[in-house]
Design goal:
371 residues; mainly beta; Porin; 16-stranded antiparallel β-barrel; 7% helix; 50% strand; globular
Length: 371
Amino acid sequence: MKHCQWGGSLPRPTVRSGLVTLVLAVGGLSLADPASALPRYSAVYGQDCKLCHVNPTGGGMRTLYASQYIVPEELAGNGWKSEEMENLSPQISPNIAVGVDLRTLLYQQEGGKGTAFSMQGDLYVNVMMSQKVGAYIEQGQSGSGEIFGITHAVPLDGYLKAGRFVPDYGWRYADHQMFNRRYLLDPDGTDNPATLYSSGFELGVSPGILTASASLLGGSESNGDNYAGRVVLQQGIGPVNAAVGGSILRRQFTDEHRRSVGGFWYLGAGPVVWLGQIDETRQEGRLGNLVTQELTVRVHKGVDLRGTYSFQDPDRAQKNGARHRSGAGVAWMPTPYFATQAMGNYWKIDQGDLVSGDSYYEAELMVHFFY
């Protein structure tokens, strides 16, 4: 697949089915999280994340191709006429483009706990110094974000990235509560995405059906303490798009190193997409397991059903407790650049020395403005 540069173009996907940002609440529960990075789109189109995102590893600012074609024509329930799109463009000059992600979340937990808050407020700027060299800046409401330079002047349809970014690992789900994000480097879990950012270098190549990346990351006194690697094979088999891959991430903390290694996959056929990931974590001297699953079904253009299941065992050698999260919901994108999502989740807590708390239900409502 060719990189989509500003002012460039890609062939239109042959599968005109855009799975969107998520999910119908089950049994009277409400709404949850649409996404800036939806890895299931890779399964829909049989392509890498770089089809829709400026960052080759996904997330953040969308490409011109995604903003001008995929979102309004493939994903939204009611697209815009071509003459309307001609008057709207993220480009403010031939070499500079901007984008935004604004998300607000309303959630309610069993027992009365709940609130509404601004979950994301990101402004993106992409500067193309040439067809092969660019600079990417993401400014979040908390001051965090990816900031890097990138060149595509690398053989094998590759790239070299230098700066601050989220290392390429597994599926980059936008839902921060998916366990492969929440518990990947923290056995107690974190909702702060800033913990995933690292400074360093990342090299990626895409020879044929193979995509691979390697990252050398900072954060300690010795180079080589922090790194990441990812490889994935993607192949269409008749009407089915399939992928399988593996990845590793190592981070050095003050008194220990933490490491995650795992495998991931997808299967996509028509309106149905199944994504999965299994990780082994090494944290505080213990080996744990993470399982993350997502099943989506498009029922109508702009409307997707979503089911999820996540599991965490922080210490598989001992019965020290475990967490399960099951969810179901619906996402609706009625017009381009606006989406809303409902999600109902059940957290089942197996109490132990490492896991505390009670099981509970929660309902979420997410409103998302983006470009």
